[in-house]
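hey
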């Protein structure tokens, strides 16, 4: 089924000049970039985006990290895009991520894990709407 998912290239990856290498992984796996922009999150935006994690021990340092440098937010489209993107990314902790995943190859730690990908259709819809207006997502024929 054709789906859209939401992706973040996180501060650690942007700082290390890995944007192109990461987008290449998506394109090599038949995910299409249908919206993209670079943003520097405010603390308020980061807190709102990660509201579900408020109160967890990793929440405060996560917010500080997410505002520490620009990020690249994208909408990716493709067959089973949500599951496919998560496969390409690997699990949260890079030490446990499958070989050849983005996190296994590039992530620095469980926090500085280079990328984010939506984990469900509901979060994909919420996360896309958080960053993109409908007219910023490109139509293709
Ligand atoms: P992500 O799963 O994309 O969204 C939540 C983020 O919180 C996660 O990526 C990590 O960046 C961070 N995170 C999750 N669990 C931990 C943890 N145990 N320690 C530090 N950071 C974490």
């Amino acid at each position: 089924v054709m789906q859209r998912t939401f992706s973040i290239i996180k501060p650690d990856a942007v700082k290390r000049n890995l944007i192109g290498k990461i987008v290449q992984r998506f394109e090599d796996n038949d995910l299409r970039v249908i919206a993209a922009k670079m943003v520097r999150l405010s603390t308020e935006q980061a807190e709102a985006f990660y509201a579900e994690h408020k109160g967890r021990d990793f929440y405060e340092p996560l917010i500080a990290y997410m505002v520490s440098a620009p990020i690249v937010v994208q909408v990716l489209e493709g067959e089973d895009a949500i599951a496919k993107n998560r496969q390409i990314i690997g699990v949260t902790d890079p030490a446990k991520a499958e070989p050849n995943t983005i996190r296994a190859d590039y992530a620095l730690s469980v926090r500085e894990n280079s990328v984010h990908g939506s984990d469900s259709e509901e979060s994909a819809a919420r996360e896309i709407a958080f960053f993109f207006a409908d007219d910023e997502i490109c139509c293709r024929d």
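Residues 58, 62, 92, 110-111, 113, 116 surround adenosine-3',5'-cyclic-monophosphate (CB under 6 Å). Residues 8 and 73 are 5 Å apart (CA to CA).
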